[in-house]
Structures are given as C-alpha cells and as structure tokens.
Design goal:
Number of helices: 16
Bound molecules: adenosine-5'-diphosphate
Strand order of the largest sheet: 2-1-11-10-12-13-14-15-16
Helix content: 25-40%
Strand content: 15-25%
Distance between the termini: 75 Å
Oligomer: single chain
CATH superfamily of one domain: ANL, C-terminal domain
Radius of gyration: 23 Å
Number of strands: 25
CATH topology of one domain: GMP Synthetase, Chain A, domain 3
CATH architecture of one domain: 2-Layer Sandwich
Length: 541
C-alpha cells in the first residue's frame, strides 16, 4: 500500500552517528587504568569508533566474527562497543572475575578471534592465552609506550598504535537489524555458562525503552555514572541509551571503592548512577562516618539483586537521592521491570510508598510477564499469590548461542527461574530465585525477606539466608551474617530483632557469623558456595 513510513534497519551505528551530530560536544569522562582522568566528547568517540572499524577490517575479520573484551568501564571500551558492532562484528564482553578456566572455555566456545584487554588484566591474559585456540590477535588497551616488553603474548599490539593511524571516516555498513551485535555469558553457577546473543534490533529497542521517564528516565541534562560493568549485560544498556539521549557519560574505570566513586560523582557533577547493591553499600559505608553529602546526584538505579529496604532509606531519607529498583537478567538485555510509582500512589503515606518502592516494579513496554504454578497455569495478580515468573518480548532470549541447553521457551515464554508475586497494579515483587526459596512445612519462605530484616540491624554488614535440611519441616532457614567492622551483635540479639518483623515460623533457626559471604563474578552472593562452606553445619534441633 502506498504512503508507508521509511524502512530503516535499527543498527547500533545509528546511535553513535546521532550522538556525534546532535550531541557532539557532550562529554565522556573516564578514570583510566593509568590512574588519571581522560576527557573527550561524543564527536571524538564517533571518530575513534570509525577508526576501530577500519582497524578491524585491516585484521581481515569477517562479518559476525567475535571480538572479545576484558575491560573496565572506559572510553576505549565504548569505542569497541560501537566499532565492533557497527562494522557488523559481535562484541563479546568477558567478565574478568570469572575463573581463568571459565574464561578460556567461553573464549573458545564463542570462537573469539580478537581479545582487547585493559593492562590490569595482563596476568589473566598471560594465564589463559595458551588455551584460547581461536584468538589470533591480542590488543592491549593502552598507548604504544605502555605496551609491556616481554609479555609472552604472541603478536601483542597496543590499541592506540593499532587503531590510531586509521582514517576517521568510515561508511557504516547497512545490514539486517536482526544481525547479532554483542554477546554475554551467564555466570553459569550450574553447569557450563551459556551465552545470550543480542541483536542490533533488540539493543536499539531496549535503548529506547530504557530512556523512558518511567524506566531509567535519561536525558541530555544527565551526567550518568554506570558503575555496573560494561562486561556485564552491556552495562544495562547505558552506553547505548546515553548516546540516544546525549547524556554525559562518566566511567569509573577500575576504581569502584566507595571513596573513588564518591569523589567521581562530586567532581563530574553526576546526576544519575547505576549499579548493584554491593557497590552502593561500599559507597554508603564510606560516606556515613565522614558525614559526606551529594551535591548533584538525584537518582540511582539499583538492581541485579534485591535492594534492601535499609539502602532505599539511606539514599532517600539520608541523601535525598531517589532509588529506582530494577529487575532483569542477562537473557533480557537486561531490563524487565523498574519501580516507579503511578499517579494514584502519590497520595499514599510515605510508608505505603516505601512498600511499593521495594518491589521490583512494573513491566516496561516490550516486556510481557506472567506468573505460573508448577503446572504452568497462570496465577492471579493479587500481590500475594506467588509463582514462577515468565517473560516474553523483543529483547528477551529465544535460544542460547549455538542452541546450548535446547529450547528454553515454554509456549513462547522464557521461564526466568525467579519466584514472584504481581499485584493488581502490575507491580512485580521477586520472592526468591526458585532454587533459593526455603520450603518449610509445605510453605515457602523468601530468603530475600529474611536477609532484608538482618541487614536493617546496625551491626550487620551483609547477610545471606539459606535453607538447611530438617527432619520434620524439610528445610529451615538459617542466616549467615558478616558483622560491620568494630560492631557487635549476638545470635540472641539478632533473633530477637526478627520478632514482630516477620511471622514467627519464618524467623531463622540460627545465626552463623562468618568473615565473608562468597560473591560471584557479578558481585552477587553465591549461595551455592555458601552452602558448600556450611556443609558440616548442624542445625540446633
Ligand atoms: P543481571 O545482570 O540482571 O544481574 P543475571 O542474569 O546475572 O543478570 O541475574 C539475573 C537474576 O538476578 C534474576 O533472575 C534475579 O534472580 C536476580 N535479580 C536481578 N535483579 C533483581 C532485583 N532487583 N531483585 C531481586 N533479584 C534480582
């Protein structure tokens, strides 16, 4: 039929071209591995991304070949985001916190041809390169004069000498928007990791959606600090959404401790930050004793694991920073829900509003969700009934890379492995991961609820709740607790602290004090490892 709109494939190169043309002078500031601050603009980033594309061509890389990175959040990583995907190759961001065996495994599985790495990861690359059989080119993200002389890595190039001499013009190729653009492996706590392969189309749609007011609410007036790593689900899509909106980008590099993050927020007038709860805990722990305040930070999106109520209170009441609680997963690009209130909730008391803010939030347009029982029957949205959360939409995985694990979908829906409730207004709340939920006497106990109460105690720095086998009740919860330095709390005091805050039968049977709780490669508590550590533990009956 005549009169239709233009058809233009949704390609990642469009984002950087747009940012250059319309927000060319907006800044991108990076703390570098070298320790200094690097500062340039979207115009510079666009130029250098095109140089990267030329440099990849010079390596004779084919369409859809994989280019891996082991890198912190920084401007060179951003140039690879655009140069690799924009030229039709697939950016494979590797999580450097994975075990070297796993890194070698996934580099081989992905058939990576090139590995670009920050110099802080040189020892890691030295440890694995002999086992990475597909990688032909190693590129250190540094100037030529910083290139280590006797690295032992064959054909090691410096990024700057590799791409720096290339022309800054490049005709970004036009191809099918369903072409793969980047990939990320799941952490693989059980079995080998599997990869989610994102497409240009899924990435652009996700970038649009993420910027919406009731989602991340990003604009050209923001200065965004993604503390969430660029090696983890594309830093929640921020490198793309920032270019789409023209927001200033502030990259923390390797310095993710509370002091460095605080200083960067203040120095660069950051208005918006994004990260997992463990990072914010470090920031708050740094600020409190020093009586520090934020002068520009307005909002922070917190996700990846449940945001404890004590953290929402600390940000909102202590510092006037709005917390946006988000939920998602690697298989979802990652955004699924964000918690922003509806108009009718504005009249609620502060306490009632807080109850809502602690939920993981409402579905974003582009994500459909439902909860189902064990037989797959859809359950009601009453805020009480819980079931496994299923999702579908254009940025949600259809199949893992290379078809690993078979068909993951159930009637077109992706089962998330999370257990959740959904209320009548569509606010979803995660009760647990299905494998972490504690089954006591036929009832379920949410390990997240039990942890949230413990971390509200002033002497508790971190807490993890796990189920222990019990002869009568199947399982009973216990709580493993890390105390705050210099503070004390006894088992009895902590158990008393639960009284009145949860049903009696949900109060843990015991408290185990530990020096540390094992964290996984994405900073989340690794309950599988904790269970291993406590395998000889005997429940007091
Ligand atoms: P992500 O990058 O979002 O952390 P992962 O794939 O590593 O992605 O982990 C996804 C899982 O993390 C989810 O299935 C869920 O169990 C958990 N998760 C993510 N966000 C939240 C949240 N806000 N609250 C509770 N659990 C969360």
């Amino acid at each position: 039929m005549l009169g239709l709109m233009q058809s233009q494939p949704l390609l990642i190169s469009l984002l950087i071209e747009f940012a250059e043309r319309h927000h060319g002078s907006a800044e991108i500031v990076s703390r570098r591995v070298e320790g200094d601050l690097h500062r340039y603009t979207y115009k510079d980033a666009a130029h250098r991304s095109r140089q990267v594309a030329h440099a990849l061509d010079s390596l004779k890389l084919g369409f859809s070949d994989r280019v891996a990175t082991l890198a912190w959040n920084g401007y060179r990583h951003l140039e690879l985001y655009y140069g690799v995907s924009g030229s039709g190759r697939v950016l494979h961001t590797i999580n450097p916190r994975l075990h070297p065996d796993q890194i070698a495994w996934i580099a081989n599985h992905a058939e990576d041809q090139v590995l670009c790495f920050d110099l802080s990861f040189l020892p890691l690359v030295q440890a694995v390169h002999g086992r990475c059989t597909s990688i032909k080119h190693y590129i250190a993200l540094c100037d030529a004069d910083k290139l280590p002389a006797d690295s032992g890595i064959p054909n090691l190039l410096s990024y700057e000498s590799w791409m720096g001499a290339q022309p800054t013009d490049y005709a970004w190729p036009i191809f099918d928007e369903n072409t793969a653009s980047s990939m990320c492996y799941t952490s693989g706590t059980t079995g080998n990791p599997k990869a989610a392969l994102y497409s240009h189309r899924s990435t652009i749609l996700h970038a649009y959606a993420a910027a919406l007011p009731d989602v991340m609410c990003l604009s050209a007036r923001d200065a965004i600090l993604p503390v969430v790593p660029m090696f983890h689900v594309n830093a929640w899509g921020i490198p793309y959404s920032a270019a789409l909106t023209g927001a200033k980008l502030v990259f923390p590099g390797p310095a993710m401790d509370g002091k460095s993050i605080y200083e960067l927020i203040e120095a660069e007038k950051v208005t918006y930050a994004a990260g997992v709860p463990t990072v914010w805990q470090m920031l708050l722990t740094h600020m409190k004793p020093e009586g520090l305040k934020f002068s520009t930070l307005k909002r922070t999106v917190i996700g990846g694991s449940a945001c404890p109520p004590a953290m929402v209170h600390a940000f909102q009441d202590g510092y006037g920073v709005e917390v946006l609680h988000a939920w998602g997963m690697t298989e979802m690009s990652p955004l699924g829900t964000l918690c922003t209130l509806k108009n009718k909730h504005l009249a609620l008391s502060a306490q009632e509003q807080m109850k809502l803010r602690l939920k993981q939030g409402r579905a974003i347009f582009g994500v459909d969700m439902k909860i189902v029982d064990a037989a797959g029957k859809e359950l009601p949205w009453d805020g009480k009934t819980y079931g496994e959360l299923y999702v579908k939409g254009p940025w949600i995985l259809r199949e893992y890379y290379k078809g690993e694990g078979g068909d993951p979908l159930v009637d077109g829906w992706f089962p998330t492995g999370d257990v959740a409730t959904i209320d009548a207004d569509g606010f979803m709340q995660i009760t647990d991961r299905s494998k972490d939920v504690i089954k006591s006497g036929g009832e379920w106990i949410s390990s997240i609820d039990i942890e949230n109460i413990a971390v509200a105690h002033p002497a508790v720095a971190m807490a993890a709740c796990i189920g222990i086998a019990h002869p009568k009740w199947d399982e009973r919860p216990i709580i493993a607790v890390v105390k705050r330095p210099g503070m004390n709390v006894s088992r009895e005091e902590l158990l008393k602290f639960y009284e009145g805050k949860t049903a009696k039968w949900q109060i843990p049977d015991d408290v185990v004090f530990v020096d540390a709780i094992p964290l996984g490669a994405t900073g989340k508590m690794l309950k599988t490892r904790l269970r291993d550590l406590l395998k000889d533990y005997i429940l007091p009956l």
